[in-house]
Design goal:
The chain contains 5 helices and 5 strands; from the N terminus they run H-E-E-H-E-H-E-E-H-H. It is an alpha+beta fold and 135 residues long. The structure holds tetrahydrodeoxyuridine.
Length: 135
């Protein structure tokens, strides 16, 4: 699975966004170490706090099926579905990634198939609090 293919799956997932309150559509495509992809989109709620980000939907779908080893995630998003810049994962999603992923976990932040950048979880969440601090 190439970065670009993962990015197109994230763009496809974004179309399913349920975001009547913010108007921000977000899509994520999570690649497991075995090569399977779990997609996610953001799901908002009238009570606001139950809202879940696209990245966490993808990660929780995988975890709930017993899959816990991941190598990369592609994330795209934008107001009213217009992807004109990078939509970086929020702090809560970074912390959820930290729970299951190593520093070299790759995060592909896309605008379109021609413009995207990759960053690692170690770069995105330095000096983090992780399971090894608790176990
Ligand atoms: N959102 C995500 O899906 N992922 C992030 O990492 C940041 C924010 C969603 C949540 C909400 O539906 C909308 O974007 C605006 O915050």
């Amino acid at each position: 699975m190439t970065d670009l293919s993962l990015l197109s799956l994230a763009l496809e997932a974004m179309e399913k966004s349920y975001s009547p309150y913010s108007g921000c559509k977000v899509g994520a495509a999570l690649l497991t170490k075995e090569g399977k992809v779990y997609t996610g989109t953001n799901i908002e709620n009238a009570a606001f706090s139950p809202t879940v980000c696209a990245e966490r939907v993808a990660i929780f779908k995988a975890i709930s099926e017993g899959v816990t080893d991941f190598s990369a995630i592609a994330v795209v998003g934008g107001k009213n579905g217009r992807v004109d810049g990078i939509f970086a994962p929020c702090g809560v999603c970074r912390q959820v990634m930290r729970e299951f992923c190593d520093d070299d976990f790759k995060i592909i932040l896309g605008i379109n198939e021609a413009e995207y950048k990759t960053i690692t979880l170690g770069e995105l969440l330095p000096l983090s609090f992780s399971p090894k601090d608790v176990k």
